[in-house]
Design goal:
The complex is a heterotrimer of chains A (204), B (198) and C (476). Chain A contains 7 helices and 6 strands. By secondary structure, chain A is of the alpha+beta class. In chain A, helix 3 packs across helix 5. Chain B has 2 domains: 128 residues, no CATH class; 40 residues, no CATH class. Helix content of chain B is 44%, strand content 19%. Chain B contains 7 helices and 6 strands. In chain B, strands 1, 2, 3, 4 and 5 form a 5-stranded antiparallel β-sheet that branches. Classes of the chains: A alpha+beta (204), B alpha+beta (198), C alpha+beta (476). Chains in contact: A-B, A-C, B-C. Chains A and B meet through strand 2, helix 1, strand 3, strand 4 and helix 5 of A and strand 2, helix 1, strand 3, strand 4 and helix 5 of B.
Chain lengths: 204, 198, 476
């Protein structure tokens, strides 16, 4: 299934934007404006809702004219492109967004044709599926780790580097005791929140 | 700089294709998918976290309400979305240097594609067909594809050591610990900000 | 490819002169007329790339210009704006891109470079101090007579250690290996200096266009160059960086970590020093000879730079973050080295300042005061880079391979001796299970080298110099 590579999903949506000559600014500009101030780090809707590795939103104004002898043509509508690399397929993923960040979904997608609102998750999923384009080829460098597994791994990596560097030349019995204590502490740590700064100096 | 978040760059590109050529491209993607060795170079380049191609046939632009005008297009369109580490120039240089055959195989069906070698004309084409990202999110902005791969290696090495550590004698542990360090030693890079864009 | 006309290319580009003395003079042009007049007078003295059949001359002269210098020479505006943006901005404006932050930031540079008035680099290399002074006297009289200002001069010279002229720098490393071979440029090529062929072990020269403008480069095209073609051809871009070396910090760091690397015998210390760079301090590459230095390798041009990293993916022979492995990864990124071929640079340079020999007991710990004295002595390396494209070659290596570690899979780890280190950074030395080659992780990294200034220069051909002098540059 080309939307999936291992346990990661590459979902692509093209959502037609409302074409209302009376709107000023036009709906595509309003989307752009909202997105330009939206938090891209820990406060992002994709950080709050679970399961997004990487995602982007782009307003696609038109197709590109590459120059003669290619034919010049234009789209009738603009489209909001939503490309996401996530841990679940459309239904659970969209439901997750609807449940965690409905206000952000509404703020962006209210400018799109046929958008039913985030309140009714079933209708929202149906809308997204109508906008979904099958991914033709999906490449993932790491295709078998979830977001939480990745964040935990990064935390582990830094903690381990710090432990190794600060325990060089230690005599074996003490090293063993300290290692066991280190593992216990490390495993008790919660998974780091998305976009958090992972300290180089090991767990605090 | 909406195309960039931390160590990641989001590139979007759209190119037109004559519909009869789309069929060929679909076959190529099918073969690429099923012949894993062809993906080896992509994996080896190691600075792409996720990338995808999406073919939109000319009559398959989503049409949701009777109020929305239908698209009437002559071309199919190939969308490309990449999430990569490093600079725009570095990315395209690398592809042109080592993956030009693969690139040509995918993009030669797009109108006016000049070929991926030499690189200057290729960069001009990409600049023309690239469109900007309005919003880019990554859950781990301080980590590249290499960093995440290294982290998973370290986790595996740690788990191996931790499984035995409690029951070993100090001498046994010391030997196992050395093996653990050797397994992790090339994977302990620091995390942080990306270098300045240029 | 066309045969190179060595009489049209400045000698400094085509070969290192291997002269032990140098003085780099920095000029400011008060107006275009005096600048052109000086250039016209200097032309006959500029050393070309012609081979010296009758032995080396007593001294050589070369000249290069900053963007501000070219603007002061009043080249046509269309020509000026056709120069690459990084050259137009100059090195100071690119400090963030290059990682020249903290102590390396422009606000800490020598006044000469902070002020930004340097228009030209006038370089004199000489066989003896007397020859250097004589040439300098001649040239500075000429400069003064035209009204051009001599802002400052930087002396540099080979270090004399134990009475011998060496190619070492102040930390004790032997320098000068591994400059790239380019097609048509080098009389003889050395294995390891060019690019790897598909067989993974034979080396061929790099395309001429990686060094000289106007020739095909490794991407199979003419590199982006300013217009007109005749102004750019046979020219190149140069980076000039004055790198202060904190000798006390270095010796103290080495001693401290050598104690943790093994016994405090000299063996562990020299071995550790070799791990920082990737060569023993005598110049032996550790990839070829990991256990001990080997002068037989050093003295043989067919051996001293012929090695690859394919059999050392773990970094246990040469650490993945060692300097030579960072700046010339060879086959370490796979693809038979193709990702590396367009990132090569030619290095020139000489140390400056007095050499302080190691104390009688080199392992004795240094006091803070001794470290401070050693650090504050004005000495280091005058470092110059020649390349056809500043952003693709020097800037890329400086930013992505020295100030960063992602391509080497080392995250944000930096080159140990050259990187601008922040708190919390590490230097990983990979090892193996033998007692003589353990893994070691250095922390609390100080800054060993401090940038004291520099800039980007355009080094024109002899033809271009004449055209500039005679106001004959047309942008098309």
């Amino acid at each position: 299934m080309s939307n999936q590579n291992g346990s990661v999903f590459g979902l692509t949506f093209l959502c037609p934007i409302l074409n209302d000559a009376a709107a000023s600014p036009s709906h595509d500009l309003q989307i752009r404006d909202y997105l330009s101030t939206l938090d891209t780090r820990a406060g992002s809707p994709f950080a709050i809702a679970p399961g997004t590795h990487l995602a982007r939103l782009a307003v696609m104004d038109d197709v590109i004219f590459v120059g003669s002898p290619a034919i010049e043509e234009h789209l009738q509508s603009k489209y909001l492109v939503f490309e996401t690399n996530c841990d679940s397929d459309v239904d659970p993923y969209i439901r997750g967004l609807a449940s965690a960040v409905p206000e952000h979904l509404d703020a962006v997608w209210q400018h799109c044709t046929g958008y039913p609102g985030a309140a009714d998750a079933t209708k929202l999923v149906a809308y997204m599926k109508a906008c979904q384009i099958p991914t033709s080829f999906f490449f993932a460098a790491v295709n078998n780790k979830s977001v939480t597994q990745t964040l935990t791994a990064l935390q582990t990596q830094q903690a381990v580097a710090h432990f190794i560097a600060s325990h060089q030349g230690m005599e074996p019995a003490q090293l063993q005791r300290e290692f066991l204590s280190f593992v216990q502490t490390l495993r008790a740590l919660p998974c780091p929140a998305p976009c958090s700064i992972i300290p180089t100096g090991g767990p605090r | 700089m909406s195309n960039i978040n931390g160590k990641l760059y989001a590139m979007n590109a759209i190119t037109p294709m004559k519909p009869w050529k789309t069929r060929i491209l679909r076959l190529i993607f099918f073969l690429l998918w099923h012949i894993k060795s062809k993906q080896a170079d992509l994996i080896h380049l190691s600075f792409i976290q996720f990338a995808r191609w999406v073919i939109i046939p000319r009559n398959r632009f989503p049409s949701l309400s009777s109020g929305q005008k239908q698209e009437t297009l002559k071309y199919d369109y190939l969308l490309f979305f990449s999430n990569f580490n490093g600079t725009w120039n570095q990315y395209i240089d690398a592809f042109s240097d080592v993956l030009s055959d693969g690139l040509n195989l995918i993009w030669r069906w797009s109108e006016k594609f000049p070929g991926s070698v030499p690189v200057t004309g290729f960069k001009e084409y990409i600049a023309r067909v690239q469109f900007d990202t309005d919003y880019y999110y990554t859950s781990y902005p301080q980590a590249t594809a290499n960093d995440t791969k290294a982290a998973h290696i370290v986790v595996a090495a740690l788990d191996t050591l931790a499984a035995q550590a409690a029951t070993q004698t100090p001498e046994q542990f010391h030997a196992a610990y050395l093996q653990f360090v050797l397994a992790a030693q090339a994977n302990l890079g620091t995390l942080g900000d990306a270098p300045a864009v240029f | 490819m066309s045969k190179l006309n060595a009489t049209d290319i400045q000698g400094f580009v085509l070969r290192g002169y291997n002269m032990p003395c140098a003085r780099f003079c920095f000029l400011h042009f008060p107006d275009a007329k005096s600048a052109r007049h000086l250039l016209g007078q200097l032309l006959p003295a500029v050393t070309t790339g012609q081979l010296w059949e009758g032995g080396k001359p007593q001294s050589t002269v070369n000249i290069a210009f900053t963007f501000k210098g070219l603007a002061a020479l009043e080249l046509p505006i269309a020509t000026l704006i056709s120069f690459p943006v990084e050259f137009q901005q100059g090195m100071k404006a690119r400090a963030n891109i290059l990682g020249d932050t903290g102590k390396n930031a422009p606000e800490h540079w020598d006044e000469l470079w902070r002020e930004g008035h340097v228009h030209a680099w006038l370089a004199i290399h000489a066989l003896t101090p007397a020859a250097l002074d004589a040439r300098h006297a001649e040239l500075s009289a000429l400069v003064t007579s035209t009204g051009v200002r001599l802002l400052d001069a930087q002396d540099a010279g080979s270090l004399v250690i134990d009475g011998q002229l060496t190619t070492k720098e102040h930390f004790g490393y032997t320098d000068g290996f591994g400059n790239p071979d380019y097609l048509g440029v080098c009389r003889s090529t050395q294995p390891g200096q060019g690019k790897l062929l598909p067989d993974g072990k034979t080396w061929a020269p790099l395309a001429t266009g990686e060094l000289l403008l106007g020739y095909a480069d490794e991407a199979g095209e003419l590199p982006v160059a300013p217009v007109p073609h005749i102004l750019a051809a046979n020219g190149t871009f140069m980076v000039y960086r004055k790198l202060h070396e904190n000798v006390g910090t270095y010796r103290n760091f080495l001693n401290t970590w050598a104690a943790r690397y093994g016994s405090s015998s000299d063996d562990a210390k020299e071995k550790l020093a070799s791990k920082f760079i990737g060569r023993w301090r005598d110049g032996t590459p550790i990839e070829s000879s990991p256990d001990a230095p080997d002068q037989a390798i050093v003295k043989d041009p067919n051996l001293n730079t012929d090695f690859t990293y394919g059999a050392d993916a773990s970094g246990s022979r040469c650490p993945i973050g060692a300097h030579v492995r960072r700046v010339h990864p060879r086959d370490a990124f796979g693809f038979n080295g193709k990702l590396v071929n367009r990132r090569r640079i030619t290095r020139r340079g000489l140390p400056y300042g007095p050499y302080t020999p190691e104390p009688p007991d080199p392992n004795a710990p240094l006091t803070q005061s001794e470290i401070a004295t050693l650090d504050s002595t004005d000495r280091g390396v005058v470092f110059m880079v020649l390349n056809a494209c500043l952003s693709r070659q020097f800037e890329f290596v400086q930013q992505q391979w020295i100030s960063y570690g992602n391509d080497a899979h080392l995250g944000n780890e930096k080159d140990l001796l050259l990187g601008t280190h922040k708190e919390g950074e590490r230097f990983s030395i990979q090892g193996d299970a033998t007692a003589a080659n353990p893994p070691l992780f250095c922390t609390a990294l100080p800054n060993f080298v401090e940038l004291r200034g520099g800039d980007y220069f355009f080094l024109p051909s002899i033809t271009a110099l004449a055209m500039i002098a005679r106001e004959l540059v047309d942008p098309r």
